[in-house]
C-alpha cells in the first residue's frame, strides 16, 4: 500500500476541502470495507484519505410519518435491525442484511454501499489496464465474463455490486450530496448512477469533492409492500449473481404502483419498466408473474459465459412478484 496522508475532519467543510478537485488523488473512508481493499490491491494509490468517522452527526436512522432518513454513516446492521425499517421498508432491511457477514455489516455504511467500486477482476487486477482505469479495452469481452453484465451494451461490462441501491430505487429514495463550500444538491437514487457510455471511469454523478450525506425514503402508501431477493453462489457471504428489488401495492387482487429493479446484471442498478408494465394493473396469478420475468430479460445480451444470469433474473422477478402478495 502506498503511503498516504490521513485527514480527520471536524466538519463537512473540512472534509470537502481536503478531498480537492482532482480524481484519483484523494478519497473518502467511511466504513473502509471497499477503499482499503482497493488500496491494498493498488487499484487506488492515493495521496490523501479523508476519514469521515469523526463526523458523528452523519450516523442516524430515523423514521416518522413523512418517511425514513439515513445518515450516510449509518451502518448496514443499524438499518437491517431497525424495527421501523423492517416494518415499513422491509425490502431495504432485507437488502442491508444480505450484504457480507455480520462483521462487515457492523462497520459498512449505507453511503459506502452505494458508492462502492466494481468487483470486476480486470478492474481489480494490476496487470490489466482496462477501460475503467483509463485503458482502451474491456478485457471481459474476450476473457472470463461469467460475473459480468447482461444489460447495458458496454463499452465496460462491470456490474454494480450494491445490494441496497436496487432496494432504494424501488422505494423511490433520494439522496443529499454536499459539495464544496457546503453547497447541497438532491438527486433521486436512480439518477445517481451512471452508465459507462457516459463516464467510463466512474459509476455515479459525484464530483471529486462531493460527500453523500443523507438518504431519504418516502413513507410507504397504504398497503404498500417491498422485498429484496438475491441469487448468489453461496448463501453465507457473496455478491449477487442476480437480484431483484420490488415495491408496490396489491389492490383488489391486482398489482399496482410496482417498481422493479435488478441488481448484479448491469453497470448500474437496472430498473425494468418492461417488468413493471407487465405487472401493473394485472390480476395476481403465476402466469402474469412469469410474464413479468420474461419481460424483464427480453433485452438481455449475455456474453459467452454468463447466459445463466438471464434465467436467474427471469426467475427472480417472477418469484419476487408472487412473494409481494
The coarse silhouette is: globular
> How would you name the CATH homologous superfamily of the domain at 229-260 and 270-323?
CO dehydrogenase flavoprotein, C-terminal domain
CATH class of the domain at 229-260 and 270-323: Alpha Beta
CATH architecture of the domain at 229-260 and 270-323: 2-Layer Sandwich
Report, as a whole number of angstroms, the end-to-end distance: 50 Å
**What is the succession of H and E elements?**
EHEHEEEHHHHHHHEEHEEEEEHHH
| Radius of gyration computed on alpha carbons | 19 Å
Question: What is the averaged pLDDT score?
Answer: 95
- Runs in which pLDDT lies below 50 for 5 or more consecutive residues are none
CATH topology of the domain at 229-260 and 270-323: Enolase-like, domain 1
Q: What's the count of strands?
A: 12
Strand order of the largest sheet: 4-5-8-6-7
Biggest sheet descriptor: 5 strands, antiparallel
Number of DSSP helices?
13
Structural class: alpha+beta
Strand content: 15-25%
Helix content: 25-40%
Amino acid at each position: 500500500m502506498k503511503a498516504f496522508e490521513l485527514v480527520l475532519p471536524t466538519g463537512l467543510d473540512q472534509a470537502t476541502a481536503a478531498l480537492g478537485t482532482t480524481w484519483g488523488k484523494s478519497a473518502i473512508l467511511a466504513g473502509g470495507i471497499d477503499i482499503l481493499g482497493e488500496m491494498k490491491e493498488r487499484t487506488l494509490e492515493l495521496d490523501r484519505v479523508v476519514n469521515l468517522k469523526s463526523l458523528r452527526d452523519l450516523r442516524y436512522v430515523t423514521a416518522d410519518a413523512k418517511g425514513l432518513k439515513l445518515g450516510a454513516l449509518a451502518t448496514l446492521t443499524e438499518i437491517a435491525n431497525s424495527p421501523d425499517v423492517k416494518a415499513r421498508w422491509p425490502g431495504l432491511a432485507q437488502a442491508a442484511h444480505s450484504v457480507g457477514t455480520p462483521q462487515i455489516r457492523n462497520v459498512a455504511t449505507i453511503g459506502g454501499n452505494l458508492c462502492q467500486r466494481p468487483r470486476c477482476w480486470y478492474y481489480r487486477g494490476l496487470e490489466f489496464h482496462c477501460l475503467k482505469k483509463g485503458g482502451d479495452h474491456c478485457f471481459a469481452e474476450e476473457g472470463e465474463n461469467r460475473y459480468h453484465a447482461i444489460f447495458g451494451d458496454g463499452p465496460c461490462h462491470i456490474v454494480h455490486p450494491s445490494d441496497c441501491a436496487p432496494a432504494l430505487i424501488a422505494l423511490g429514495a433520494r439522496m443529499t450530496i454536499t459539495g464544496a463550500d457546503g453547497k447541497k444538491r438532491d438527486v433521486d437514487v436512480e439518477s445517481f448512477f451512471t452508465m459507462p457510455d457516459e463516464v467510463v471511469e466512474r459509476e455515479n454523478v459525484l464530483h471529486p469533492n462531493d460527500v453523500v450525506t443523507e438518504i431519504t425514503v418516502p413513507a410507504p402508501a397504504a398497503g404498500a409492500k417491498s422485498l429484496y431477493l438475491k441469487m448468489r453462489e453461496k448463501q453465507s457471504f457473496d455478491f449477487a449473481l442476480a437480484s431483484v428489488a420490488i415495491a408496490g401495492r396489491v389492490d383488489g387482487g391486482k398489482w399496482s404502483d410496482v417498481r422493479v429493479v435488478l441488481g448484479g446484471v448491469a453497470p448500474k442498478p437496472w430498473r425494468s419498466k418492461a417488468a413493471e408494465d407487465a405487472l401493473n394493473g394485472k390480476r395476481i396469478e403465476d402466469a402474469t408473474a412469469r410474464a413479468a420475468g420474461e419481460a424483464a430479460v427480453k433485452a438481455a445480451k449475455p456474453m459467452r459465459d454468463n447466459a445463466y444470469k438471464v434465467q436467474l433474473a427471469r426467475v427472480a422477478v417472477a418469484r419476487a412478484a408472487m412473494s409481494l402478495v
